Amino acid sequence: MDLSHLNHQQRQAVTSTKGPILVLAGAGSGKTRVIIQRISWLIQVEQVLPAEILAVTFTNKAAREMQERLKDELRGRQKGVQLSTFHSLGVQLLREHIDQLGYRSNFVIYDTQDQQSVIKGIMEDHDLEDSGLIDAKGVHYEIGQAKNRGLGPDHFLQQRDSTRKTQVGQVFTEYQRVLKGCNAIDFDDILLLTLKLFEEYSEAMDPLRERYHYLMVDEYQDTNRVQYQLMCHLCQRHHNLCVVGDDDQSIYGWRGADIRNILDFERDFPEAKIIRLEQNYRSTPTILKAANQVISQNPQRMPKELWSQKPTGVPLEWIEGKDEAEELELVARQIKIQVLRHGRSHSDYAILFRSNFQSRLIEETLRDSGIPYQIIGSTSFYERKEVKDALAYLRVIHNHSDEVSLHRIINYPRRGIGKTSLIQANYYCQLLRKPLFEICKQARQHSRIPTEAAMSMESFAQMILRYQQRFQQETLGEVLRDLLADVGLIYDLETQKIDPKTKEKRVGFVMELMRGLDRFVEQNPEKHLRDYLERVMLFTQNDREEELVSNQVTLMTLHSAKGLEFPFVFLVGMAEGVFPNQRSLDESGEEEERRLCYVGMTRAREELTMSMARRRKRYREEVSQTMSRFLSDIDSSLFKVAPGAKMDMGQKALQKKQSRADFFQQLRRLQ
DNA sequence: CAAGCTCTTCAGACA
DNA sequence: GAAGAGCTTG
Ligand SMILES: Nc1ncnc2c1ncn2[C@@H]1O[C@H](COP(=O)(O)OP(=O)(O)OP(=O)(O)O)[C@@H](O)[C@H]1O
Question: What letter would DSSP give residue A109?
Fold first, then answer.
C-alpha cells in the first residue's frame, strides 16, 4: 500500500495497529487522514474484516464524510466498516437490548423541548414552579450536566443543606420516572443506558466487546466521561484503540466534554503510544500564525508545534460595517468579486458565525445578492411547532406511551377535548394506573369525562390504531399524507388568521417534512416508521442529502465547522458579546471561546476574512459594539487593513475612503 | 370551551 | 421574529 502521501509520524500512526495510541496534534495536521488511512491499511494490508472495525466520530456529518473518503480510497472494500457517532451506536444497541433496562424497544427520543415540557409538568404537579428556587430551564441544565458526568438524582438529593439542590433532585427523580412511563429516553440517556448495559448486563454485551477488533475515535477532545467509559468497554477485549484529538479544539465543554480524557489517557492505558503531528497541510503560514497568536493566550495548553510549508499567502482581510446589514453586504460583495475575479466556485466559500440567530440576516443578504448558499446544521426545522406536531402524530402511532407527544396532538387540531376533560382523564390514569392512551380508548366508561369529549377520545384512539396498521403495511409517505389530511393539520394551518407569508412558510415546512419522508422511503425502501423516527431524532437537518453541494456558499456555526476546511473563510460578527459570546464568558470564561476562534480561523486554507458591525440591533434597541478581543491578539501586520486601526482618525477615514473607492472601482471593472 | 388578542420572554454552541 | 402565557370575549 502506498503511504507516500503521509509524513513519517502519520505513517507511524497508521501502521501501529496493535495496542492503544493517542494522536495529539494541532489543526489541519492530518489527523482525520490518519484515521482514514489506518482503516485502509487494516483492510488492505492486515486483511482485517471491515466488520471488525469501528470508527466513531462526533457528528453524523463527520461520519458521512469519512464514509465518502473511505469509499474513494477503497472502492467498495470499505463496506461493512462501522462508522457512527456514539449516539447512533448507542441507539443501535439499545434497540436490541433496552428491554433489559425496563423500556420497550419502540422507545422514542426526547429532545430539549420535550424534556422541558416534562420538567414543567412535574414542577406544576408539585407546586414547585413559583418556589423561586428553580425554573424548568435551570433544572434541565442541571440534569444534563449531571448526566454527562454519569450522575443520577442522588447526587442532588444528598446535598441536604441546599433546598434548591434537593428540589432539583426531586424533579430529576420524577423526570426519570415520567420518561420511563412514556417509554422515552433523552439524548444523555442514550449514552448512559448503553453504558448501563455494559456495566450491569455485562455478559449479554460480551459479543460486542468481541466484535470490534479495532476502534478509532476522531475529535477525541470532545468526548465526555460517559463516552469515554463506553469506549473503554468497546475496546476492552482487543485493546486496539486509536484516538485522535487536539486539546486546543475542545469546544464542547458545555456538553460535558472532559479534557481529562486526554490527560489521563496514558494513565488508563499505560502501554499507550503517543504520536504528535506537527506539520499543517491546510492553511497558509499567515493564517496559521494568526490562529496561533489567538490560541497562545490560553494558559495550560499542552505543548504542540505546528508549522506550514506552504507559501506565505495573502494577508488577512478585515471588513467593518456600520451595522450588521452593511457588514454582511460587504461580505456578500467580496464573495461576488472574488468568485468573478478568481473564477472560484461558490462552494469554496464558507461564512461562519457564533450563534444560529446570526444566520437569518446572512441568508437574506445572500439571497438579495443572488449568491447561492446552503445552511448546514440548523436544528430549527425539527424544532418548529408545526413540524413537531406532525411528528408527534407519528411518534404516538409508533409508541402510544409517548405522552408528551400525545398531549401535543390530542386536541390539535381541535377535536373538543378540552382542559377539563384531560384533567378528568388524568385522574383515571392515576386511579387505575393506566396510561392516558388506554383511558382514551375506553373513555366513555369513565363517567367523569364529559360524553362529547369521551367520544372524541375514543375515535382519536381508534384513528391512531388504524394508522398504526397502515404504517405497517403501506408506503410511509402516502400514509402520512392521508393522516395529515385526515386530522386536518394542513387545513388548520391554512385557515389561521395570520399574515399570509408566515402561513405559507408553515405549510411549506410541513410539506418539506412530507417530502423528506418520501426521500427517506426512496433511499431506504425496506425501512420502517421506527427507522424514520430514529433518523429524524438523531440526524438533525444536517442530513439534507447534500443536494447539489456544488457551487453554493456554506453557512454554518463555528461548532459545526469543526473538522472541515474551505479555501475562503469569513468569520462574521467578530464583536465583543457576540463572539466571544457574553453568556459563555460569564459562565465559563473566555478560554473555550478562544479555542472556538482558533477552530474557526484554522478552517481556512488560502484566505481568511473577519468582519464586524459597529452597531447591532438587539430586539428593539440598537447597541454599539466593540471589536472582539481576539482580534487584538493578532499582529496587525498580518492584515491587509488592520482592524480597529492604530492610526489616527484622519488616516482611518482616508483609508476607508480609499479602500471603498478601490472597491467600487473593482465592482465597475467587473460589470 | 374556543378563539382571538396582547404581552412577555427569549435568541450559546449539538446529538 | 417566534412561541407561550394569560387575558377577554363570544
Ligand atoms: N501528509 C499529507 N500530505 C499532504 N496533505 C495532507 C497530509 N495529511 C493531511 N493532508 C491534508 O491536510 C488537510 C487537513 O487534514 P485533516 O483534515 O486530516 O486534518 P485534521 O488534523 O483532522 O484537522 P482538524 O484538527 O482541523 O480537524 C486535508 O486537506 C488533508 O488532505
Answer: E
Residue A209 has pLDDT above 80, yes or no: yes
List, by residue number, the catalytic residues of A.
31-32, 218-219, 249, 603
pLDDT at position A540 is: 66
Q: Cβ contacts of residue A193 below 8 Å, gap of 6+? A: A90, A94, A98, A101, A103, A185
CA distance A522 to A519: 5
- Measured by CA distance, the residue closest to atom 11 of ligand 1 is A281
A188 Cβ nearer than 7 Å to chain B strand = yes
- Chain B positions with an atom below 7 A of a protein C-beta are 1-5, 10-15
Residue A453 known to bind ligand: no
CA-nearest residue for atom 8, ligand 1, is A30
Q: What is the pTM of this model?
A: 0.89
Q: What ipTM describes this predicted complex?
A: 0.92
Over the stretch A85-99, which tens digit does the pLDDT of each residue have?
999 999 999 999 999
- Calculate the average pLDDT of chain A: 88
> Is A560 (CB) below 7 Å from strand B?
yes
| pLDDT of residue A619 exceeding 80 | no
Q: Cβ of residue A382 near strand B, that is under 7 Å?
A: no
Closest nucleotide to A414: CA versus each C1': B2
> Residue A360 CA to nucleotide C1 C1', Å?
10
What domains are there in chain A, each with its CATH number?
Answer: 8-93+191-277 (3.40.50.300), 109-182 (1.10.10), 307-372+551-640 (3.40.50.300), 382-545 (1.10.486.10)
A29-38, A214-223, A392-401, A635-644: least confidently modelled range: A635-644
> Any idea what the Cα angle at residue A63 is, between residues A57 and A67, rounded to 5°?
135
Nucleic strand B under 7 Å from the C-beta of A88: yes
- Phi then psi for residue A626, to 5 deg, are -115, 160
Q: For the residues of A15-58, what is the DSSP string, one character each? A: H--SS-EEEEE-TTSSHHHHHHHHHHHHHHTS---GGGEEEEES
